[in-house]
Amino acid sequence: MPDPCSLTGKNNRCRQTAQGTFRDSKQSPHCHQTAPPILEAGDGIGGSARRFKLGGDERPRPIERAACENAQGKARNKRQAPCNQPQQAREDKTPAADAAASPNVNPGFNPPVTIRVPDTSYPIPAGAVFAAPDGVAAVSGASREAPTTLQNALQNAPQGGTIVLRGGVYRTGITLAKRLTLQAAPGEQVWLKGSDIVTGWVKDGALWRRDAWSYGFPPRVDPRDIDPKFPMGVHGDMVFVEGAALRQARDKAAVGPGEFAVDYEGKTLYLGDDPTGKTVEAATRLQGVFVGKNQAVGTSAEGSVIRGLGFTHFAGQGIMLRAPRVTLERNAIIWNGIRGVSLPFALPNSHPGSGTKDEGDQAENCVLRGNTVSFNGQMGVFGNGVNGLMLEGNTIARNNIENFSKSWSAAGAKIIRTSDLVARDNIFEDNYASGLWMDISIYKAKVTRNLVRRNAWMGLWFEISHDAVIAFNTLHDNSVGLYISESSQAQVWNNTFVDNDTAIRINEALDRRNKNAKQIAQGITWQARDNVFANNLYAFDANRKPRARFYKADNCRVKKPASLMIAVNDFNAFVRSGTPGPKTPPPISWSLSAQACDESFSTLAALQAATGRETHSLALNDAAFVDAARGDFRLAPSSPALSRGTALPEAVVRAVGLDAGAKTNIGAF
Higher pLDDT residue, 34 or 542? Predict the structure, then answer.
């Protein structure tokens, strides 16, 4: 993989410099005066012209006043390689200009973007309780003009009630143990922060220190999560000076400008920058919201709704769900130390107030809709045993900023041991890991109409799992567009793959066998069998991606033919534009037998002759996209891929909502 520090232009450093900006006539003096475009949650966040911003104000203020609190992710620790180097060519020798346009680098170092909780105007039901950062505990919160505190509102709101949060910053974590709706007041920016403002600094040589620092978040992760080149990334500690994140160094001796260190035993926080006259924020809370059950009184947060809120600066995760049928809608969950949203498998006594696990502890049939989940340390969304989970219309982008191991745990979203997953109409982009990773006995997944781009590892990864519809997705500029490993009966239809290093990879990288008898009876064998690839469009520009491949169906580890892994591959289009160079590798690999387990084919015709596969597929020089340079991969009226697909099977028709039996185009559009 390329050096994650190699960026062109003035952002080629190992530290973000994102600052918040607001369009408001009453801005605080330390806000910039020119505001960039505002990014709403649920929108794409690509593009170098945008900047990152976090809304909110610690002080009481009128509803219309914008605030000047900024947030930004941690950069690399001091022991990592320097980043002020010229752009290096990528593995595929992509020119620097192209690499900058679609970087396969750590997203924490990409040009900063603007993130704002979307403006919402949810109706306020009768009997709603109002809360505000400057609310008064002695009042009931019955009116917008006389709000109570958030903690008081949580205590007094009835089961099934609604809490309306007035705009501002709430420096607190909370627990929902009864069914509630939490929503932002119409048009107001609400942020829950896991940090506190730190004062009391003392000069200490070239550094500044804060004594009696009782907070610390050393690693609480599986050692296999750690990339040894980035050992400090797994710490949840975060420090921000005037909204700019500092790097975490291993100890006091390693601290330099733009860095901090925590002496856990000595209870001391060290800074490499002078904090005089500046706002310093440091993480002091592990998680933002726990949604679960109060075993002692028998109440559950099942069916709760959290919408229109922001969660940031929490050392662990922004939101943890352990209750069924919870909806997260149009929230911004950003810059948290480990995960944005966590839906872990419930264990006995796993949270204060929880008793033994029962059905109420598991986060099944939950919905994440229209959220922005970005710039989190390890992953944006993690789910384990969350049957019926729906991811719809989210932007899950630029996660794994702390360089956790891409091959073990990190992802934009990683879902394991789950049936009936639905992921549709999302954007998975610029994650320094896989975009969406489905792992360990995923069953009956439907992954449709997603935009999956510029992820540094796999765009979509379907691993040791069974029975998925992966259809009408657009995947471009990923390391691998779609990886199917030790998985069976994936229906891969009508996807558009453009300029991925490898469009599709399928194999049995390890000789694994499922030992769960119940899962085996369902077909979850952990072997690559009977997958179908039809109506897909594979395209790359040989000038831009001279080493790109359409697909690799090699199987040398277990010495099995690709015909076992792939039941059908036909009615696809292979588009290689540009001029292949003398060292351009063959774009197709296929396992013919145990002895010929990785045979290469330079043309579609050669593959057809050797395998009898892809008999109705097309070899094209131009897909005739509407505007590929601008990322518009719809087929133009002149495209030879129009009306050349075959009829969709019923499973795909149901998953995507198209007419049964209709002949389709090749590709996603």
Answer: 542
Query: Of 291, 327, 328, 347, whose CA–CA distance to 175 is shortest?
Result: 291
Ramachandran angles phi, psi of 213, nearest 5°: -85, 105
Tokens of 67: 């605030």
Q: Apex CA 241: angle with CA 239 and CA 243, to 5°?
A: 95
Token pair recorded at residue 664? 């389709």
What residues form DSSP beta bridges with 589? 552, 600
Sign of the C-alpha dihedral computed for residues 246, 249, 251 and 257 taken in this order: negative
Contact (Cβ atoms closer than 8 angstroms) between residue 429 and residue 461: no
Q: What is the pLDDT of residues 248-271, one digit of tens each?
A: 999 999 999 989 999 999 999 999
Residue 259, beta-bridge partner list: 247
Residues ≥6 apart with Cβ < 8 Å to 277:
none
Q: Which token pair is 508?
A: 């049995």
Distance in angstroms (rounded) separating the CA atoms of residues 345 and 246: 33
**Residue 56 backbone class (left: φ over 0; alpha: ψ -120 to 50; beta: rest):** left
pLDDT of residue 346: 62
Q: What is the β-pairing status of strands 207-210 and 268-271?
A: antiparallel
CA distance 237 to 74: 9
Q: How far apart are CA 138 and CA 70, in angstroms?
A: 31
Q: How far is residue 494's CA from residue 16's CA, in Å, rounded to a whole number?
A: 38
Residue 143 is classified by DSSP as B
Q: In whole angstroms, what is the distance from residue 598 CA to residue 191 CA? A: 53
Strand partners for 531: 566
Task: Give, as one character, the DSSP assignment of residue 345.
Answer: P
Question: Nearest 5°: phi and psi at 91?
Answer: -55, -40
Spatial separation of the C-alpha atoms in residues 81 and 499, rounded to whole Å: 28
Residue 468's DSSP bridge partners are 445, 490
> Does the predicted TM-score (pTM) go above 0.90?
no
Beta bridge partners of 332: 310, 372
Residue 88 has pLDDT above 50, yes or no: no
DSSP state of 40: B
Compute the distance between CA of residue 318 and CA of residue 332 in angstroms, rounded to an integer.
10
The residues, ordered by sequence, that sit 6+ positions from 516 with a Cβ below 8 Å of its Cβ are: 441, 524
Q: How many CB atoms lie within 10 A of CB 172?
A: 15
Can you tell me the distance from the alpha carbon of 183 to that of 190, in angstroms, rounded to the nearest whole number?
9
In 491-600, where does DSSP find H-type helix? 517-521, 562-565
